[in-house]
Amino acid sequence: MSHFRSFALIALWLAAPAFSCGAFAQNYRAKWPSEAKVDAALEYLKDSYGDVPLRINCKAPNGKAEIIICADPYLVKLALLTARASFYGTENATRQRLNRRSKDVWSVPKECSTVECIYTSFKRQFDVAGAGPWNPFE
């Protein structure tokens, strides 16, 4: 086998995960809310909940779920929206304003190690927070 052919086979083998990840990203996004819906929901909640921060430090992600989320700007937006929607739902249920820095209301599910688990967690938070024009899952 020539060196060129060996190199080409190794290059294809190394590139395979990237191709499968791209296909996977397109696959999981098919059932998720569109990015336009997520952007519209963030805009809707901006005035009242714009001070609720992202619950993840993407410069130093902690755990598999945060690594998965931080690798995709769309998931980062959805994580921010999920945090803000959780505050919305909790404040409306309790009729009390919460400390916007509190991590007691919602945080990234540490037990998640797959995109499917993250999807389920985000969707569950929106189901709990209630319906509204800011809910991109509706």
Would you give an account of this structure?
This protein is mainly alpha-helical. It has 2 domains: 30 residues; 97 residues, no CATH class. The termini are far apart. The N terminus is likely disordered.
Notable characteristics:
138 residues, 5 helices, mainly alpha, single chain
Low-confidence stretches: 3-25
The gyration radius over C-alpha positions equals: 19 Å
Report how far the terminal alpha carbons are from each other. 56 Å
Q: Biggest sheet: strands, sense, closure?
A: none
* Overall geometric form: globular
Individual helix count:
5
- Give the overall pLDDT as a whole number: 76
Which percent range describes the beta-strand content?
Answer: under 5%
Topology:
Blueprint (H helix, E strand, L loop, with lengths): L2 H27 L5 H15 L14 H7 L2 H22 L20 H15 L9
Helix pairs in contact: 2-4, 4-5
Task: Summarize it.
With 138 residues, the chain is mostly helical. It has helices at 3-29, 35-49, 64-70, 73-94, 115-129. It is globular, with a radius of gyration of 19 Å.
